[in-house]
């Protein structure tokens, strides 16, 4: 199916002012991808990223048996070139060499997806396993909590935002048996404890703050 150049074509000057706040590098693929797709959908330009889309024919009949340039193709090519340039402007210099020779927005987009898709999945799996395998051990409570938060931050940097519930669960699962009373209080509460609430409770417990513990509110 041919892609209509009139669908989603906007003022190039307007579109060129829409900047992505996150440059693509080895750590920002999912955040960058989300911002790019939202911007393109807002301007109805996401169809240009599909390599299966067929552009308008370059020449059409002039009615006298000859051929003339197709204005639809010219508009399509102009918009695609503007979009390709915009995509490249949102990519860090360390990544640009991988895209040399890519002359359409679809080629640029799909090269990036190929480059980072599998890497990002591997990172997400690694960070999630790391989050749920954290154990306090001989660390201070502050060190342990910082390590768990670091795992959550790493996941967030890949576009995987960890909920309060999962963050709290990871903390509780990493506590040794001497914190069993804290675990019981948190898990038995009908009002879910926040990460901040659990953090305060655990730090107080380490300093031998007497019971009862504060409520989760």
Automatic annotation (TrEMBL):
A Pfam family in this protein? Retrotran_gag_2
Going by the entry's taxonomy, the superkingdom of the source organism is recorded as Eukaryota
Q: What protein name is recorded for this chain? A: Retrotransposon Copia-like N-terminal domain-containing protein
Q: Which organism is it from?
A: Gossypium klotzschianum
């Amino acid at each position: 199916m041919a892609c209509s150049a009139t669908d989603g074509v906007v003022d190039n000057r307007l579109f060129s002012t829409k900047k992505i706040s996150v440059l693509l590098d080895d750590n920002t693929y999912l955040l960058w991808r989300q911002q790019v797709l939202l911007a393109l959908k807002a301007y109805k330009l996401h169809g240009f990223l599909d390599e299966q889309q067929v552009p308008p024919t370059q020449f059409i009949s002039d009615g006298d048996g000859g051929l003339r340039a197709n204005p639809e193709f010219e508009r399509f090519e102009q918009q695609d070139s503007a979009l390709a340039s915009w995509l490249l402007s949102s990519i860090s210099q360390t990544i640009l060499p991988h895209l040399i020779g890519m002359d359409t927005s679809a080629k640029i987009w799909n090269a990036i997806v190929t480059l980072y898709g599998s890497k990002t999945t591997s990172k997400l799996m690694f960070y999630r396993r790391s989050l749920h395998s954290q154990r306090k051990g001989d660390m201070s409570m502050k060190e342990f909590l910082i390590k768990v938060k670091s795992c959550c931050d790493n996941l967030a940097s890949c576009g995987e935002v960890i909920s309060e519930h999962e963050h709290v669960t990871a903390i509780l699962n990493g506590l040794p048996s001497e914190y069993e009373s804290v675990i019981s209080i948190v898990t038995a509460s009908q009002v879910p404890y926040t990460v901040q609430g659990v953090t305060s409770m655990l730090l107080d417990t380490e300093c031998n703050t007497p019971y009862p513990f504060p409520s989760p509110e």
